[in-house]
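A common beginner's mistake is to predict each chain separately and then try to dock the pieces by hand. The better habit, illustrated here, is to supply every component at once so that their relative placement is modeled jointly.
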Amino acid sequence: MGKAIDAKNLNIYYGSFLAVEGVSMSIRPQTVTALIGPSGCGKSTFLRSINRMHEVIPGARVEGRLELDGKDLYGPGIDPVGVRRQIGMVFQRPNPFPTMSIYDNVIAGQRLNNKKMKKDATDTLVEQSLRGANLWNEVKDRLDKPGSGLSGGQQQRLCIARAIAVQPDVLLMDEPCSALDPISTLAIEDLINELKMDYTIVIVTHNMQQAARVSDYTGFFNIEGTGKPGHLVEMDETKTIFSQPKEKATEDYVSGRFG
Amino acid sequence: MSIDTERQQSGAEVTAPPVPSLVRAELPTWAPWAVLGGSFVVIGALLAATGGFSIGMLVVASAVVYAVATYVLSRVVEGGRKAADRLVTIVVTLAFLIALAPLVSVVVTVVGNGLARFDVEFFNSSMRGVIGAGGGGYHAIVGTLIITALAAVMSIPVGLLTAVYLVEYGKGRLARAITFFVDVMTGIPSIVAGLFAFALFALFFGPGVRLGFAGSVALSVLMIPVVVRATEEMLKIVPNELREAAFALGTPKWRTIMKVVIPTSIAGIASGVTLAIARVIGETAPLLIVAGLTTGLNFNPFEGRMATLPVFAYTSYAAPGVPREPYLDRAWTAALVLIIIVLVLNLVARLIARLFAPKTR
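With all components supplied together, the output reads:
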């Protein structure tokens, strides 16, 4: 459980537009890595390229190497569907499946892939995943109700339960708290702290306090100007990034003196 | 100094905005009704006095006078914005009533004329050996249902899969070409679809062939573009986030489409398909050419002519026997039955939409 990710000189394109240029970073297993930076600097794009979700957009492509425990995810013969089974993702807006109950949403990964499971095995998995996402006590009496009837924060935790139910090695989170209130945000941040025992977590956030609270490592992305590609300015332990960063731009950004 | 103060004062007077009042005059609620009644009475009296009284003239002229009088009255009492609001409300209401008039007229006429033969005999006997009174449209009802069902069985899979291709897979030239031809097909006159089916079956069975199945083929030519369009619109409004959520769980694309995209939009697709069926079930021209007409019952769409309700109604009305009355009555009843079938289909569509709609509670 929990695998290392190594990006080596990754260039990410939308059609002919180079969106992110020359990213090299190492993400250690069972750590939380936060990606921060101004809007449009390519942190979400980079995140989506880790589980090959980037190429879902027409014309989008990636150059360079991206290794999961030494295996190149963009190498020949690699099936993107297989990659996504190992690298789960939680999106900015909670997106439970509206046609499914809470129960079915949690095991959507199994159901959608037609995995046959015994009833008690699925029950255990659902309870385990919902407990893992700190949602079990709130929904255990209404598992057969639609997932879209939950509050925003509950829906987001349902999506996290759904992502961990397929037992991935890595969990990617794209601004998971940006649509949530402070209390739900706290619940999810606590959850991230628990989840890093089992998973490697990469989280994109606009909230620098959040990055400081939850992450072990922080990567700062920046962009020279509109139309220019985004790039990784520096990456280090979160403490270092927020106290004595090497780059002037990082210091300006984390101290709020940016732009 | 004194000049400065004066200037400031006068400047302040010029730029001071008028204090807006939140209270404004309003016409009492009975006023528009009074104006409506008044314009009826005045126009009625005027028409009666000039001797040119007619209901149509009364309604049209009163509506115009009502609109103008309300506008003027409201403008004087309530001001320009309210007056414009009242005028537009009246115009929109009138447009709605005008649109409703032919619909109400059709329903009243068909029900009024069709009820005469809306009896058990109409539903359990064909026209075999019937001259004059009696007989019924059983054979035509059966024919319509069989031909339309066959057309639906052929069109729905083709239309559904085409829409899935266009929304989920289609990129570039091929998709644009398909979209273009679907648009063109939507505009095909139904008689052309009939001629196409006729020509196609004439190639295999020789000229003069008439089959129920040929009618189904003609109808499906008309139905496929409607199904494609309806399904396409429904698939397009499925949020992309749901597809991404499924992809991120390691679900292949085809399973995502089968288990997420289509179930999410099934309500809209089902009602779209039902409306497409309702659209073709009343087609007359193509069936007149390829399915023909017969007086007897025919359950086999692959052999011999097949009567259908629209064709039955058309021929009974266009070429009645002697005496005319029973033929005309049967034509009206056939039209009524057709309208009822379409009505039921619409209700079924609504029911399906409600049944399949994603629930939130």
